[in-house]
Task: structure prediction
Amino acid sequence: MGNNPATDILIDDCLRFLRDFAPFDRMLSEDLRFLADRVKLAHYPKATRILASESGIAHNLYIIQSGKVRVVPAGSAEPGDNVSQHLGRDNCSRSKR
Result:
């Protein structure tokens, strides 16, 4: 553990959350801790664009802890198109522990 009790609590919460989902549930403890030590919690207001294909290669992994994101394929019409989908925490594979 680190020197900051508040940071340790956040990292422990992150570890508990990640362990509920594949592929994190199969990671070695030290590897999962390495990831949890580097996670940044972020909140995005509704309709915020988080990623866009025209921005090039994504350099971050976004994990949805709560809420939903709307995935719109590049070149599709917005809003109200029939090809977008909503993803959230319930779209992930929960571990069967």
